[in-house]
Design brief:
By secondary structure, the chain is an alpha/beta fold. It has 15 helices and 13 strands. The longest helix has 17 residues, at 346-362. The radius of gyration is 22 Å and the shape is globular.
């Protein structure tokens, strides 16, 4: 009997959480005689630390669930198995590969992806003289709707994140990518933040901030639930959160508004299944990864969680979403969502982006000026 050790965050092996993955594991074991899966559930409080320690001690599990922003950290340490050859035949069946790629090699398989979409308050739309059943479809409609809500109601039209480390650059990325811009050039050797697409994007966000609540992401979410913000960008976890915490609020969900460049691109966060480079059972471990990441088995988790989605294009056409249009929006948005660059220096690069965005929206400093400063600092980081 070969035992595959599997560390994961998504569910338990009993009914102690909403997501019980025991039936999926049992099905794998029944179809793969001679293989047993030893599952350990991690917590978000200390799971990353535990994974890091296990790799350092060369006691890592055979298969481990990683957040897509963690893959670079471990791939750069040569502790993950290179799956490039293994996945070559299935690459066109999945989305989200940029989140598992480091130095042109693939170190995991996308399992469950999450993304962001536009939430809007239908009551505030109606009060402002807007069609409550028609969300903004492009940048100009978004800016105009935000201004109209701000001018004609006691609420702020939109929510722009500031005052924290991650959300400002994450939110900016969606506007940037939609407008055809990027953080770095094509070969990731220099900043692209001083290019016209990026400057135009930040100038737009800066203008939008004048009719927005500029605050930490949590505060924006609370104010939206209280009916004091007309629109904000957030994840599918808010579908359940709003239903529970603001049951009387009338709201809708729409795709990220299209930029002048013609794109609607969201931010991709997600769960990846990777294999330890030290595994004694590489074939069985990969068979297990294939099984867990299949559309059929990933959908079983989606049907319970409703906030993460199988990493397959066109998944929104699954019958499960037929009577759930809000959830289907997120499933559709996953197909065009992007990840940040897979670089060891990304954490420091993202800090420069956040600093630039916050100076633009909090101090109304010139977008071109703050992005040039950010570019200079990023280029220094990349040169090291």
């Amino acid at each position: 009997m070969k035992t595959i050790k599997f560390w994961q965050f998504m569910g338990s092996m009993d009914d102690s959480t909403d997501i019980n993955i025991a039936p999926i594991i049992e099905e794998f074991e029944s179809t793969h005689p001679g293989v047993k899966v030893d599952v350990q559930q991690l917590t978000w409080d200390n799971g990353l630390d535990k994974i890091t320690t296990s790799f350092a001690a060369e006691e890592a599990p055979d298969v481990v669930e990683l957040g897509n922003t963690w893959v670079t950290q471990f791939a750069s340490q040569d502790v993950l198995l290179d799956l490039s050859d293994k996945v070559s035949s299935i690459k066109d069946q999945y989305v989200g590969w940029d989140g598992v790629t480091y130095d042109s090699k693939i170190y995991g398989v996308p399992w469950l992806l999450g993304t962001r979409a536009l939430f809007y308050n239908k009551e505030l739309f109606e009060q402002a003289g807007l069609d409550p059943e028609k969300a903004p479809m492009n940048w100009e409609e978004l800016r105009a709707a935000a201004a109209q809500i701000t001018e004609n109601t006691g609420a702020k039209g939109f929510g722009i994140a500031a005052g924290e480390a991650e959300t400002p650059w994450t939110q900016f990325s969606m506007f940037l990518w939609s407008n055809g811009g990027n953080f770095l050039n094509a070969d990731e050797t220099a900043s692209a933040l001083n290019e016209p697409a990026a400057v135009e994007t930040l100038e737009y966000v800066q203008e939008l901030s004048k009719v927005s609540l500029v605050a930490q992401d949590g505060m924006i979410g609370q104010e939206f639930a209280a009916g004091n913000v007309g629109m904000f960008i957030s994840g599918a976890w808010n579908l359940r959160g709003l239903a529970q915490n603001a049951p009387d609020l009338k709201w809708g969900v729409a795709e990220i508004p299209v930029a002048p460049a013609g794109n609607s691109v969201s931010f991709s966060g997600g769960e990846i299944l990777s294999i330890s480079a030290k595994t004694e059972h590489p074939e069985e471990a990969y068979q297990f990864v294939e099984f867990m990441t299949s559309k059929q088995n990933a959908m079983k988790i989606t049907e319970i969680a409703t906030s993460v989605f199988p990493a397959f294009p066109g998944v929104e056409a699954d019958p499960f979403f037929a009577d759930k249009p809000e959830i289907a929006i997120f499933a559709k948005q996953v197909a065009t969502a992007q990840n940040p660059p897979s670089l060891k220096a990304w954490q420091k690069i993202s800090e420069e982006v956040t600093t630039a965005v916050e100076k633009a929206v909090l101090q109304q400093t010139s977008a071109a000026e703050v992005l040039q400063t950010a570019s200079d600092n990023i280029n220094k980081l990349l040169a090291r």
